Amino acid sequence: METFDSPIQLAMKMLQELSLAWAVPGVGPDCVSYRPPKWPPPVDWPVSLDSTLTPVSFYGEDIWDFTYWVGSPYKLNFTGGQKGSRAAIIDKGNAELLKLVMAWFIWGKFAANKPSTLTYYFTTIRPLFVVASRNGILATDLMRFPKVLDALKKVQKDSSLESLPLLLHRLWDSREDLGIVLLDSSRIQTLAEIACSHDRKQTPYIPPRIWSYQVGRLKECLDDYMSHRAAIEACFNYCVDAYAQIHGSLERAMILTGNKSPSKKPFSNQPQSAHANNLTLCCGKFVDVASRYGLRELLEKWVARIGNETKLTVSDFSQYLTLCQRVSYAYILNFTVQRKGEAASLRTSCLLWEDDPLGRIPMICGETTKTTTDSDARWPTSPSAVVAIEVGTSIAQLRMRCAAAHPEVNVTDADRADPYLFHRVFEPFGNATDRSVRYSILPQTSGYLRTLEYFPRLFDPEQLRITQEDRRIALMFTPWLDEDDDFSVGKVWPLGWHQLRRTSAVNMFASELLSDSSVQFLMKHSAASMSRYYGRGRGRLRINEVATKVVITSMYEVRAEEAKGLQSDRYVSPLGFERIREDVVDLIAKKDAKALAKAGGNGQVFFRLIRLGACTSQSDCQYGGIESVAHCGGGETGKPCSEVLFDREKEVSITEELQELELEISTLPPGTPRHKALAHERTALENYLNVIAE
What we know:
Largest sheet: 4 strands, antiparallel
Helix content: 40-55%
Number of helices: 27
């Protein structure tokens, strides 16, 4: 029999999850300041202690002093106005709210794990309470006075204003445990648009056709490697053995092939008679070796010099490995929202899986992660990215054999057991001029465009040329491209590593907004897992802070763009088009995406995506419209909700879903709870199809 926790049990569980996030000597679970005794904390609870564990500051005080914990002067001033303080004044009511918020950021779930992060949180969110105080309202009433948010631009720096939506999103997501609401999702969207209203150039958004093409070619290259993996590894070891044999040992081969002096070569495209000086071992032409291992066509496809396919050399084989290494790197960047330096420092053990009600979620774990309190080294990813890690691992392990044989590379036992996923060329038949660089020194990462110059067979430049449709979609999310000639129609799109982060984040939420079916397919799993962790913070593991900010910002950006669809016939009310509020339609016809988002915060437009289309309810809905659409589509009552708008472009997916429901319903005994629930769902989907067909 299923049991449920009582409110008291839930409260106790919440309290047990609260704890100090950063390590302070002497402050452990048994210490009075390690976690609050209740929530909200009592005014006489000591929030900080000195070296003798004597209370320094109490929750009810206006200044919290953490100097003894940090090791240098460190105070949080909640009211300002004291002698010698330059902090803007906050009234008593707002100061109490700010204390509660900061207590959550210190002891709450996924709180700041170091003082510098706490400083960032405090300086970012404090101006919100300053503005509320100056306007004579509480910060919890800001939703009733959305125009007050415009004043934030006068009291807050652009950099911290851009970070504020992320912190508010986390507070909104924790509202049940926190006990207060500052801004709801629609008002956070308003704030996000205010933050983007200054003249800052956003990272270019890659049009879906071009993004899909580059991802498709990367995946094709990875799949080719995996289908030939055994042969590639066997051929590599054969070539390494040949160099070791002709030089007397692999160590000598590594040393001698890495300097400028003449080196013995086991492979040659010249007749053997030309090598009577015995500098060449009788291994024949490498192209014949490649044929023997079944790799000739593979190498010709990806790295052979155009026009010289029949002259494959062993150095081309090394180039192929480097290409696949770069492709793995690019593919991971496409599906993790990582920065280029973060991906470049990954180890072969970087993949872990987290069990979740949605299923097993793949997670990329950076080298710096030592405990689950590190927020800067974990990135949710798509199952699609697993093949990139497998390819990168295979190549890293092959090259480790050569790196470990060089006495000056200084490979440690830990390196042998867990190599860097992406490193330099070490094999004696590669083009590296110096193989004595220490293994701990990672190579510089060249740009995405430079990679294309090195490997011209990877992409067809004609497929990267910008079309009118490409440009139209790119401008939806990056308006400033209209002023840059590099992004004009007919030019080759200038790909960059940094573009992959923003494009993937936008696609995570906008795949159904975009017409390209490849994007919709590729982002299906990503939207289910990555957006859940970045957007809702429901996992047990801490997620990278910068990546989370990119994703959350993109989520609000996409919402504003999707709302523009209301001015067309894409959305239809089940009660008739005339029931779509006239003020909404008129407003949308006059505004762009940024203005729409701002209008949403002013209470003029309410727009939230659901499975059947959009919800325009001005208040929270207990039914959601995601897990079930029975209420939205009238599955229980026969009458769809008056606040729902059906999206015509979802017809195909809804039709497929209805067919799957029919099959499942046919297998269930009539009258059972599951049968009844699915029957209501079926009726709602049928109502949707009937309405859009009219």
